[in-house]
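Intended use. Records like the one below are meant for learning the mapping from a protein sequence to its folded structure. Do not use them to infer anything beyond what is encoded.
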Amino acid sequence: MLHLRSYLYIAPLLHYSMRHLISINDLDREDITYILKKADEFEDVARGERNLRILEGKILGNLFFEPSTRTRMSFEVAMKRLGGDVLNMTAQEASSIAKGETLADTVRVVSGYCDAIVIRHPLEGAARFAAENSSVPVINAGDGAGQHPTQTLLDLYTIKRECGKLDGITIALVGDLKYSRTIHSLIKALALFETKIYLVSPDALALPDEMLEEIGGDVSRARLSEVIGEVDVLYVTRIQKERFPDEEEYRKVSGSYRITLDTIKNAKDSMIIMHPLPRVDEVDPAVDKTKHAKYFQQAFYGVPVRMAILSEVML
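Structure written out for the chain above:
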C-alpha cells in the first residue's frame, strides 16, 4: 500500500492513491498516524488562531441525502478555514432528485462544478458508487449502516489528544453495535492498534458475528458494570430508530443504556466519555459537567481532522 506521507513529498501522481476516502479499510496504521499528525498541525487554524488559505480557489460539494449537523458543518468550516468555498445540497425535494434524477447523474453533474465531493446517503455502498461516477475525489460522510471513515479518524484523534496515545487503550463500545456505521468503522481502526475492546449492547444490537471474526484482536462482550473501572474510554452510541427495519424491534431496545453519574462513579479518574452525537437520552446531561465528558470537544476535533483529509485529496 502506498502511504499518505509519500503523496506530499515524492510525486504528485501518488495523490491518485488518496483520490477517494470511502472506507476506513482504505487506510492502514501508518496512514492513520500520518493523518492524525497532520490534523494536529491544523488545530490552531481550526480555532481561528492562524490564517491559512491553501485551498483558496477550490470548491467542495456537500451532497447530504440524510440529516446532518456536525459532519456537514465541520466539513464546511474546515474548507472555509483553509480558504476554499462550499456548495451544499441538503434538501432532495429542492433538487433534481425530486424529478427522478439518478444518483449517478447527480454526482456526474456536481463533480463538474466542484473539486471534491462529500456524500452522506442512507444506502450502504452509495459512497463507493458515487466515487465510480465522479471525476473528482469523493469522501464518504456515512452510507447507511456501512462506514463513516472521517468520524473514525476524528474519534481516534480525540482519543490520542485526550489520552495521549492509541496503543494500550482499553475502550468500551456501548449501545447500538449492529447498525452503527460509526462503530463499524471505529472498531476496524482500533484493531490496527494495541487496544482492548469491550462490546456492551443488548443481544439484539450486538456486533455482527462476521465483523467480530474479521477484526480479531482483543475483543470481548461484557457488562458495563463489570468493566467500568478498567476502561480508559467509554464510547456511547445512540440507538438509531431510523436504521431499524421494524419499529417494534426498536421499542424493545430503546433506552437500554443510560450513562448517569451513578454509572461512572467507579470509573478511573482519567476515563473519558465520547459520543458521536446527536444524543437522545443515553447520556444524562448531568454528566456534561464532569471532567469525563469529551463529546463536545470530540465534535470540534472533526474540523482539524477534516482539514487534513481535504488537503490530502484536493492538493
